[in-house]
Specification:
alpha+beta; 2 domains
């Protein structure tokens, strides 16, 4: 049995969707279909002030991403520009662990560190080097604590 949010999501997807055709030179062929959907990739590296991340999850703008710097939502923006409706764009997965290059600690793009690293002893540390979570907790737990730590660090940074 589907939950109410799953039924609503199905209803919305059936009602409005867009399927993009191939791109030939500068011509973009579009085909509107009743039951189609388009998956164009992520937008977690869209750090522009007027980008998708700023519009749908502005609280994540200060966080780095483990997506490549090519993940700017170009396909989503293109589809929406020709009339597609975005669905669930506020649902951005936040991963609690990424590797920080000591030579570029403030780089916006990080390398994903899998949960397995925490399982074998990897620690979650804030900017001051303090441990702030039980690393064996679920991803949602770890991610929420990462967001709290980032908010605390960001507010301290703005005060100074």
């Amino acid at each position: 049995m589907l939950s109410s949010w799953q039924r609503e999501r199905r209803r919305r997807r059936r009602r409005e969707a867009l399927c993009l055709g191939p791109i030939f030179g500068f011509a973009l062929l579009t085909l509107l279909l009743l039951h189609a959907r388009s998956a164009t990739g992520g937008y977690a590296a869209d750090f522009a002030k007027d980008g998708l991340l700023a519009k749908y999850r502005p609280e994540l703008l200060d966080l780095p991403t483990t997506n490549g710097d090519h993940c700017t939502g170009a396909g989503t923006k293109m589809a929406m520009a020709v009339g597609a409706n975005g669905i669930d764009l506020e649902k951005v997965q936040v991963h609690p662990t990424g590797l920080v290059d000591p030579n570029e600690p403030d780089a916006k793009v990080k390398f994903l560190a899998a949960e397995a690293l925490r399982g074998v002893g990897g620690l979650l540390l804030n900017k001051e080097g303090d441990r702030f979570a039980d690393e064996l907790g679920h991803r949602d737990y770890g991610a929420s604590l990462v967001l709290q730590a980032a908010a605390q660090w960001s507010s301290r940074r703005k005060e100074s």
